[in-house]
Amino acid sequence: MNQQVQKNTLYVGGLAEEVNETILHSAFIPFGDIKDVKTPLDQATQKHRSFGFVTFLEREDAAAAMDNMDGAELYGRVLTVNYALPEKIKGGEQGWAAQPIWADADTWFERQQQEEEMQRIQKENQAAMQVAEELHRKQITEEREGEKDDPDTKDDPMVMAEAESLKQSNS
After folding, report:
1. What is the pairing mode between strands 6-13 and 51-56?
2. Which of 21, 87, 104, 165 is the residue whose CA sits 20 to 30 A from 42?
């Protein structure tokens, strides 16, 4: 499970039925400025599912709230307070529940264009390398043939063997 912890959002579990977002906000406001409070609803009962999320503006405030509120009692129930993990859903590049599926369409398109450009550049580089290698082989072959005509190297068996192997590799 390789999910990244959200350091300024807290999961608050063990909420009593009477607790709503306003009460949850009031319970956590002493620890710092709160950006958002959510209590997800059960679709069938339209009541919260006994947990919620409190997002602080500052990480330090979230840490202080977690230290002080984990194990605390609210409306007769003991709270469990931890850093929240992002909820995964199908769709969307990053899979975050708060992100619509189409949110990454622009970045996906840009990445596709970059990949196509990289492939085109790689093909051009490969073609240029092949041309350069062929040119280099021709130069070496011409040099070796020039050495054959040289009276000092004409009878040298090593020069003759190298020239022969170059001819075979070019064929």
Report:
1. antiparallel
2. 104
Phi, psi of 46 (to 5 degrees): 60, 25
Query: What's the pLDDT tens digit per position in 42-86?
Result: 888 888 888 999 999 999 999 999 999 999 999 999 999 999 887
Alpha carbon of residue 132 to chain centroid: 37
Strands 73-74 and 80-84: unpaired
List Cβ neighbours of 33 (8 Å cut-off, separation of 6 or more): 56, 57, 58, 61
Domain co-membership, 37 together with 70: yes
40 lies in the same domain as 71: yes
CA–CA separation, 108 vs 91, rounded Å? Answer: 13
Which residues in 39-70 are b (16+ Cβ under 10 Å) and which e? beeeeeeeebebbbbbbbeeeebbbebbeebe
Q: Check whether residue 76 and residue 128 sit in a common domain.
A: no
